[in-house]
Design a protein that fits this description.
The chain contains 17 helices and 17 strands. It is of the alpha/beta class. The longest helix is centred in the first third of the chain and has 19 residues.
């Protein structure tokens, strides 16, 4: 049998020729790691889907297997020990994880699964009682014919498969993990808990897979209200750098004004929300848009993490160190962005060049960083004249006196003042390139110092953010972020002198 998407595939007589076609027919995620997928693994997921009545001869009316469910299964099948999953509301995240867990336990000998909902253990146990148990009981109405045993005791909720000596357990607290061993541990709603709880959960969960060959830990959820010390956020950064498995349906940060405009939000929802393939529709999402408000809607439906209380360092220092070019800075290319920035107290100023190399990586080179501002206008004038470069700058604060000085000089260089809305966009672009490893710097002490104290700061009266300092000057990166954004909008590739450092 070769079932189509939306039909009821039976595990018996399995023919997986349709699997990839259905999986690849859905909305593409923002980030996805390499895929595994064997006939045995696919049959296991389908067995779990049948137990949850997503498919099979007793599949529930109106339910069907979704492309993102097959994609999630194949991401986990690749075998990464650690995995991060970010999916919006109404996209079958938890149902898919439960189906994967039940399927593996029902088809694998001595397989142990722990499911822990971090918003509260009670929430996970409620899901067990309201969603899992009814599906299993309706699939097998006669208790004596069931290939499983349902344990309902409070704090002990689980589904056992006696024939395989396997089980899936719904965990109530991190204490239930300590001293145990599991093949699969799922930490759901991982964007919700406070930092102190995160530390306790990870210290309890991580060792549980150490003694189980092929053990996996999955951190999953929707976007949280904050980023610093957020378990899901930090694991997503690891996944985006290619260090762990990842399935990430999200979009880039958006200005609150844009988030409040349905005409701007709707196309983004269509682009990134996998649930529109059959679990919900745009009209229903629009109804929730009207109720939630921009920040909550961005978290729940677009995967945009909030900035609540966020004073954590923006740049992972190990990641930053790994992106340093081992060698001297090459000559500047023929075309680059030349950014300048002055800190609010005028204690420091910086000149940073930005461009992209042959591989498309963002490149930042600090040309000057000195105390005060008296030196800035003449120095940037000389550099810009020598390279025929455009000077990119902010339009707020002390830098305006320096750009006025430049504009009044004979042979003034071209100036590119950045609009207020350009600053958050430039900040987000720089951080994105660093987080994804698409970035090069030259291990310059003042640039490194800026990276070590960089945090998010609220920008204006909106949910937008920009680069902010926490204990030191960040002007090298502020100047570089504006220069990089300007360069991307003005590539002039025909004038570029490629830079390629294979050595």
């Amino acid at each position: 049998m070769n079932p189509r998407h939306g039909s009821t595939p039976f595990v018996s007589g399995y023919d997986g020729s349709w699997w990839n076609e259905v999986r690849d027919s859905g909305i593409k995620p923002r980030f996805v790691s390499e895929l595994g997928g064997t006939e045995q693994g696919q049959q296991a997921f389908l067995a779990g889907a049948e137990l949850m009545r997503l498919s099979g001869p007793r599949g529930q009316r109106g339910r069907m297997i979704q492309p993102q469910q097959l994609l999630m299964s194949d991401v986990l099948a690749a075998g990464h020990g650690h995995n991060a999953i970010l999916m919006p509301r109404r996209s079958s995240k938890t149902t898919s994880l439960v189906a994967e867990a039940l399927g593996r336990a029902s088809t694998t000998e001595d397989y142990r699964v722990a499911l822990f909902t971090l918003s509260s253990g009670k929430a996970g146990r409620s899901r067990f009682a309201k969603d899992v148990v009814p599906a299993l009981e309706r699939l097998y109405p006669e208790k004596g014919n069931r290939p499983f045993k349902i344990i309902r005791s409070a704090g002990q909720e689980r589904v056992e498969f006696p024939e395989n000596d396997s089980f899936v357990q719904w965990i109530s607290s991190s204490d239930d993990l300590r001293g145990e061993a599991f093949d699969l541990v799922v930490l759901d709603e991982a964007g919700e808990p406070e930092p102190e709880k995160v530390s306790d959960v990870i210290s309890a969960a991580a060792p549980t897979i150490d003694t189980r060959p092929g053990g996996q830990l999955v951190v999953a959820g929707t976007a949280g209200r904050y980023r610093g010390a957020n378990l899901l956020w930090s694991w997503l950064q690891r996944g985006r750098r290619g260090e762990i498995g990842i399935l990430d349906y999200s979009t880039d940060d958006m200005d609150e004004e844009d988030l409040a405009d349905w005409e701007k939000v709707a196309p983004v929802v269509v682009d990134i929300h996998p649930g529109l393939a059959g679990l919900t529709n745009l009209a229903q999402v629009q109804n929730n848009f009207s109720l939630l408000g921009p920040e909550d809607f961005g978290r729940e439906y677009l995967g945009i993490f909030g900035l609540q209380g966020d004073t954590s360092n923006l740049i992972d220092q190990d990641q930053w160190a790994s992106l340093a070019h081992d060698g001297q800075r090459p000559e500047l290319p023929r075309h680059f962005g030349l950014g300048i920035a002055v800190n609010p107290e005028q204690a420091f100023a910086s000149i940073t060049a930005a461009w992209r190399d042959e591989q498309g990586r963002a490149v930042l080179a600090l040309l000057e960083h000195r105390p005060g501002v008296a030196w800035l206008a003449q120095t940037v004038y000389d550099i810009a004249r020598k390279h025929r470069a455009t000077v990119v700058h902010d339009t707020i604060g002390a830098v305006l006196a320096e750009t006025l000085n430049l504009s009044q000089r004979a042979g003034s260089p071209r100036l590119a003042p950045q609009r207020r809305s350009d600053i958050p966009a430039a900040s987000a672009l720089l951080i994105k390139e660093i987080e994804t490893g698409n970035f090069v710097h030259f291990d310059q002490p003042d640039m490194n110092a800026a990276a070590s104290v960089l945090v998010r700061r609220r920008f204006g009266q909106t949910n937008s953010w920009a680069l902010g300092p926490a204990g030191g000057p960040i002007t090298p990166l502020e100047a570089g972020s504006m220069a990089l954004r300007w360069y991307d909008e003005n590539p002039r590739k025909s004038l570029g002198k490629p830079t390629n450092w294979a050595a």
